[in-house]
């Protein structure tokens, strides 16, 4: 199994392509759909689904284009299911008033922590609110990887000054759900370079 980090859009939001020999999962297609499509075509992969860590504008900008191109479903937590079609909630109305984002509903709405299998990919889902109320972290246990969205970063944590943000809740999510993972777990954040749980436990000043 392989993975690739592709920063997209003006905020350089990390989209991740997690792949086996033939298929792939797309995390947070924030912008530049043609860039993603070109990469997927070059690798001769067949996408199976889009997994969203949360529904802020910089993580969903290319969602509809990717879904329509590949005819694949999107997954999102129920607490942010309505955000896809509401520019006030997803933040695009505030930051890009000239092109607010009103996207189609997600095909799959996640209602609780659970295990999720799509093709050969098996995830454990953690509800990690704080940055936003419906933030999800996807844990790939057999590969020791965590896709944390904007919850945990290299030497930092997610901002909580946006609608629905809560700093205490964010720190509780990290402490209760993420820090118990093995030290060598690779953390793939929504922005910036990858890190590990062990490194953040030791050196992250917010923790």
UniProtKB/TrEMBL annotation:
CDD domains listed in its UniProt record: metallo-hydrolase-like_MBL-fold (cd06262)
- Top-rank taxon of the source lineage equals Bacteria
Query: What GO terms are given for molecular function?
Result: hydrolase activity; metal ion binding
Keyword annotations for this protein, in alphabetical order, are: Hydrolase, Metal-binding, Zinc
Quote the Pfam families the UniProt record gives. Answer: Lactamase_B (PF00753)
Q: Does the keyword Hydrolase apply?
A: yes
Q: Coiled coil: which residue ranges?
A: none
Q: Does the keyword Repressor apply?
A: no
Q: Which cofactor(s) does the record list?
A: Zn(2+)
Stated name of the protein: Uncharacterized protein
Q: Which organism is it from?
A: Peribacillus asahii
């Amino acid at each position: 199994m392989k993975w690739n980090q592709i920063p997209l859009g003006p905020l350089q939001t990390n989209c991740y392509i997690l792949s086996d020999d033939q298929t792939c999962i797309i995390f947070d297609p924030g912008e530049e759909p043609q860039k993603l499509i070109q990469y997927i075509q070059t690798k001769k992969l067949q996408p199976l689904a889009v997994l969203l860590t949360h529904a802020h504008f910089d993580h969903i900008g290319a969602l509809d284009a990717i879904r329509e191109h590949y005819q694949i479903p999107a997954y999102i937590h129920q607490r942010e299911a309505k955000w896809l079609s509401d520019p006030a909630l997803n933040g695009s109305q505030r930051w890009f008033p000239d092109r607010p984002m009103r996207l189609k509903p997600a095909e799959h709405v996640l209602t609780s922590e659970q295990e999720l299998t799509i093709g050969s990919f098996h995830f454990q889902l953690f509800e990690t609110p704080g940055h936003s109320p419906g933030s999800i972290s996807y844990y790939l246990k057999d590969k020791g990887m965590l896709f944390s969205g904007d919850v945990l970063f290299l030497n930092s944590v997610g901002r909580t000054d946006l609608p629905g943000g809560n700093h205490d809740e964010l720190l509780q999510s990290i402490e209760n759900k993420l820090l118990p993972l093995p030290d060598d777990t690779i953390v793939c954040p929504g922005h910036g370079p990858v890190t590990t749980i062990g490194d953040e436990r030791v050196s992250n000043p917010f923790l």
